[in-house]
């Protein structure tokens, strides 16, 4: 049996294991180990090669960016800044028809700029925004749909864990990826807000029974300052220092953690017990990401030894479907896989397979990374998996709102994400203009 055939068998076995419910890192590791064993004929050599891949991955200095931004995101979440972001954004858009929904999008955009975790945004704003919108007459379906749709901003607006993972997989600058995500992230937030505003004027019944201008008393100037200034300071500290070149991404994460801790202590919203829970949660998430990245490196080594990527690249070149054919086929595959797999797993499986093909086509990997993130994030809103939808369902204290309601509410936002994807494909400057 040739190495290519072994590689294809390992790939197929990995896909089967994922479909039957085996945790993706274990599926990647086991199929990689057996594949290298069959190619080299020695389980000892296979173990050593894969152990070397694992140690080099975790020993990388750039890996330090993961736990730091995860820690910062959790501190921001428990210290009440999500509620502050919602209050400030709602105050800004309260005079618009559908303003509470637009405010939820704005709050998610602000929250995304200091967390980078879509799941955290979904959990926080399900508890904050959904009850508030329903109290003002918005339908349950629209309320959960807004939260589900706007939660994906956390993986596009930097800092973003998916951008960090993509950077580690492709050896691209995390800082450049962060900068490349700014304009697409802002554009998506504008599309979401504009879509809500247009719907409120053209089809008001789709939003609910009472979507007139919010009559809630506005925040005072002092309240806006108390809630908004800490958020602005933290965003300016992390992203401003990063874009100005004062910090590397890792240093920005460390500075952001310190800033979030100081803000939480100054506001007396971060207790010792909260901090211990945050450290525990950060450790769990970081360990999960470690397993994902280690397994991805093992998988990449096995594919390289088998020659599958080279053969796949030759096949694509010989198929004569052209540059755009390859890109569109990849996007379609990512979106389809998003119906059953989580974001990280899709990237771990497909990105290493595509890299040799992209190298021959001289594709800008920064632009391709943003394309990948947008395509992957559409999967967060699509059935039957849709991890953001399940997070929202678990955070809801309302059994009358079904998973189907959340998926249907999120569908218009998934369509707007497809529109953003088309814009980035047609106008690559959206990702490269600031670099």
From TrEMBL:
Keywords: Cell inner membrane, Cell membrane, Membrane, Transmembrane, Transmembrane helix, Transport. The chain crosses the membrane at residues 12-37, 58-80, 100-130, 142-166, 178-200, 228-246, 252-270, 282-300, 312-333, 340-359, 365-392, 413-430. It is a multi-pass membrane protein. Pfam families: DctM. It is found in: Cell inner membrane. Signal peptide: none annotated. The keyword Transferase does not apply. Its main location: membrane. InterPro entries: DctM, TRAP_DctM. It comes from the Bacteria. GO terms for cellular component: plasma membrane. Residues 11-430 form the TRAP C4-dicarboxylate transport system permease DctM subunit domain. GO terms for molecular function: transmembrane transporter activity. Part of the tripartite ATP-independent periplasmic (TRAP) transport system. Belongs to the TRAP transporter large permease family. The complex comprises the extracytoplasmic solute receptor protein and the two transmembrane proteins. This is TRAP transporter large permease protein. It comes from Shimia gijangensis.
